[in-house]
Amino acid sequence: MNKNQFAPTPPMGWNSYDYYDTAVTEEQVKANAGFMAAHLKEYGWEYIVVDIQWYARGAGSRRESWQYIPFGEVVTDEYSRLLPCPERFPSAEGGKGFGPLADYVHSLGLKFGIHIMRGIPRIAAHLHTPLLGTDKTADEIADPASTCFWNPDMYGVRPDAPGAQEYYDSLMALYAGWGVDFIKCDDICRQDAASARAETEMLHRAILKTGRPIVLSLSPGPARIDQAWMYEKTANMWRITDDFWDDWALLKDMFARCELWQNHVSEGCWPDCDMLPLGKIGGGFGAERTTRLTPDEQVTMMTLWCVFRSPLMLGAELTRLDADTLRLLRNRDVLRLVTHSAGARQIVRNDSLAAWISRDTENGAQYFALFNLSDEAGTVRVPAEDLADAGVLPEEWEGKTARELWTGEEIPAPSVLAGIEIPAHGAKLCRVC
Hints:
six-stranded antiparallel sheet
């Protein structure tokens, strides 16, 4: 089974982190899954992902001092593998793991995912617990010098140690048995640890051995462009940024990141701009807020993510989405770029504007995205020499119509090239045919 078949188009879904941080519960996951099934599934949204520390007892209980409680208690099985905390995920009681919750998500016609950390639980190494499928114990494969600087739960795995691959094999077999469709592995993408690349390769091999098409997502970024070939070989998604939040400076910076990675977007291989901080976020961090991105900045974010073909993962509390945000997430014409476009590239970028082009893979239409990166509203026009370099010829647009996909407005295509009025930090996305 080829891993490129696991995510033929960029995954679209919901992740618990932006709202719930470390403390999401089974009831909350089910509520968000129910909302997605009822209101978003028909538009392509399908993944429900439980993010970090689902295995930790008391997660979030000392938030004023620690995001991740040092040496906190975690739940493991007899083979050194983390299990869901039954206080937050009661259906996991009795060794059932995430099986019952995955079954519930699947019953809604959705897919289920979990977050993991690179490595093996520290407590397993300290207690010398067994590894399934080998006579080795956790301490024999753990590297106590390989730790995550922001999360205290794990030791890295020594790739050359007997039993190391067997550990990852048993971990992926357990998740496949639960019905997991998506794994977000953290502390691995930007290769802070010397073993990160090898551990990525071990994860990849272990997933293939399960026979289940489990999408592999690597975090955090920024991913290393010199390792693009490795990401493409082993994973389906890899973060090209550190955590992305609702800040215009971070959004503006994403244009350079997407330009860097635009030639590495291909079927099953998706450079990842990170989650969409829309709606209500931050609740688990102790200060719920409505996204600080303005409505125009939200349009810019969605336009860039879709034309670039980044995975789309919502971070909001879905049950509290407002009507305007729902409209943003249910625009079929815009979301079509995620599933039916190719060849996206940035043709100009400076401090005041950016422009991207791509094409529809079924009907041959051209997509033309214009962004006003300045702090003032104004007319955005791509210089003629940049259009020529990109192969956009004004004479070929004569007689054609451009449809602006956010508003539905239809205008003569040549007038798009002549310049469009765009709000500060806003965008226009046109389909020309």
